[in-house]
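Structure, all two chains, one model.
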Amino acid sequence: MTEPDTASNRPPTLQAVPPLLLEVQSLSKRFGGLQAVKDLSFTVGEGEIVALIGPNGAGKTTAFALISGFLAPDTGRVTFRGRDLAGLKPHRVNALGVARTFQIMRPFPRLTVVRNVMIATLGHHPAPAEAERRARAVLAELSLADKADALAGSLTLAERKRLELARALGTEPALLLLDEVMSGLNEAETERILELVRAINRRGVAILLIEHVMRAVMSLAQRIVVLNHGERIAEGPPEAVAGDPKVIEAYLGNEDVAGAPA
Amino acid sequence: MRTAAALVAVAVLLALPAVLNAYALTIFILILFYAFLAQAWNILGGYAGQLSVGHAAFVGVGGYTSAMLAAHWAVTPWLGMLVGAGLAAVLGAIIGYLGFRFGLRGFYFVLLTVAFAEVCRILVSNIDALGGALGLYITFTGDPRQFQFQDQRVYYYVALALTLLATGMAALIERRRFGIYLTAIRDDEGACEALGVDTFRYKMLAMVVSSFLTGLGGTFYAFYLFSLQPNTVFGIPLSVEIIIRPIIGGAGTLLGPILGSFILTPLAELSRQYFGQSGLHGAHLIVYGLLLVSVVLFLPHGAYPYLRRLFKRA
């Protein structure tokens, strides 16, 4: 008789499973003859880091576009904090607390770096002076403060990756969708982004990331969802997924391969 | 520094009619009037990067509205000006809704704006109550209440007031969230959406402000020239006159449209007169063409950004 009481009185920090933030339910999307995403379901909990991996063309970026409102799913649904995102335009999804970065970075090249981030901070802080103060704070956090007044078009690849992150962060999201923010970076730059992503997560921002840099995925993610041909083929903690034969097959082909993916 | 420079410029423009002869005054009235239309266009075409080549339609709607109200209902054009601008804004909202809701970009948006202006031109040409293809003529009374002035200098000051109004509006927009969003929408709408910007809403707002201001200009046009013909006032050539100034002066900058008008209007008038006398009507368009090609090749952002860089270096 006393059991239900103890359960409801339990402080949330003691719960084993974090409360649900994002729920993707049997999502499908077809482009002509190509089934880009097929019956995809997974969840992201409050404050969690989940990685979405899979070979090229597995449907990862399409899944991002479906979640962030850039594409409408054929079937299935996405709920964020219990709210159905169906039919919402990208800016509405963002306003609810889901921010995304683009795999092919899309800075506003003719605006300065600080203006780029202001486009994000103005949403919550309509007064330009306050929005600029916030934007400079985000840039300082991502060690881009000295580039604040440069044109975004003049940044290096690594700097543009951080700007992409800074802008997404400027919208003060509860969930950050990161699409390959480490690809093309060298060892030191990758390490830097890894540290930044961890710091962002420590502040309570949940992260869903698409990444090919396996070392980063293994060290960051608490859970990994593996896609192949638009379908989820595996899900679990990094160690379990890395040893899963289906995953190895998806990455290396169906020959009998003993080793795990590099 | 910027405020001081602006005050000096306004003071010079206020004092100017005292030293101009009648011909020069006419040219300056046209410079200011086109600078006003160019600035109104700049809000949508320059800052927001939505290329409208149908802005003549707003001039036409504004002009016909106040002229008809004055002729048939004895409504003073000072009030008719606001009604006309309101109707121009409604037309702008319709074009904007169709274009932005259905995601027409680049050439497709250009075609939509041209098509609307052309439909207006053909409709008005075929409505007898609006004077048909011959258009409307306004009888000169010289009554200021009828937006008519014996003294040409008054037209100059009205044109100056319109230019300052549109420029003040653009300056205000530039500093606010609205204007900052517009410059980002110009660069990448998808990225704006991802950052929480309601691009549809802000493009609509830019369209409504721009078409309202342009509509005000229609009344000035009608009561300065005393006539409205559908082919000129709704025609593509007028739209081109409106957009070529900010493009040459610097689209999306505060002073570009004004500089563009100061460069192009006298050039157009002088070459029109020069070539007209030698029987080469329309040859001034060749001058326009050459100038446009040179600007695109050598000053792709327009004259004003180039001059600003030059002065910064000096």
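Residues 108-154 of chain A form one domain.
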